[in-house]
């Protein structure tokens, strides 16, 4: 009775973090907004650290509605791409060490995106998580929740439809 | 909206920190219609392989444009905030080209303003994106776009 030794935890972490990093680092606009992603297993949380350049209403002050929309859309696209590459990454079909922004699969394209503004975005860090409700060969539907202090007290949520990149085979 | 009022609205919108970060310019504003534009900038790229601007930056332009249309409407909102905004992306904006948006506030009630908007690049016949939104009508001065 012998079974293959489990993969060392560092190998697993390195593979997943390298793939996530390649996915996120390749997009200049994500850097422009200062968005980072934290990973627990396959679960991603997007982080938008507060910055004065994100303000849309200086008198309140409040985050720009466009920043909120963009933050949720970035979270949806990265969440969807991450779900799309996860199986290939874990099976070894996709080699994370060879992943650069040039060799990554194309990103999904937004067809439509609807943002529901529940309350003003406060001048502090914001967080978001995406849930892929349906992901087919051509189309996907993704829901995103954004919050600041309390996880259950959303400041915005969004739903979007995406055109999936055509993959080989 | 008189010339002074339009000029004040233009200055107000162009001074919003995130609008400055995006380089948003007010090209025309008055009577519930606003035209804003944003230069192409490599830092706003969403698809590194094609150099196409991220949809989020187009959303920010459309959202600002919608808010600008609301505050320029004769109903006289002192300020506004977005309640909901739906954007449909028709095609990728051509890399290197300025993106312009035109928003029209087509109906206003005591508390809500309804807006339609279109975004274009240099090809004026094929929209890059369209949007519909509902905005608050703030009666006390709070500002916002």
Automatic annotation (TrEMBL), chain A:
Q: Which residues form the Thioesterase domain?
A: 63-151
The cross-references to Pfam families, in alphabetical order and at most eight, read: 4HBT
- Tell me the domain of life: Bacteria
InterPro entries (alphabetical):
HotDog_dom_sf, Thioestr_dom
Q: What is this protein called?
A: Acyl-coenzyme A thioesterase PaaI-like protein
According to its UniProt entry, this protein's organism is Rhodovulum iodosum
Automatic annotation (TrEMBL), chain B:
Q: Which UniProt keywords apply?
A: Hydrolase
Query: Which CDD domains does the entry mention?
Result: PaaI_thioesterase
Q: Which residues form the Thioesterase domain?
A: 51-126
Hydrolase in keyword set: yes
Record InterPro entries: HotDog_dom_sf, PAAI_dom, Thioestr_dom
PANTHER family to which the protein is assigned, alphabetical:
1,4-DIHYDROXY-2-NAPHTHOYL-COA THIOESTERASE 1 (PTHR43240), BLR7284 PROTEIN (PTHR43240:SF7)
Instruction: Tell me the protein's name.
Output: Thioesterase domain-containing protein
| Species the sequence originates in | Rhodovulum iodosum
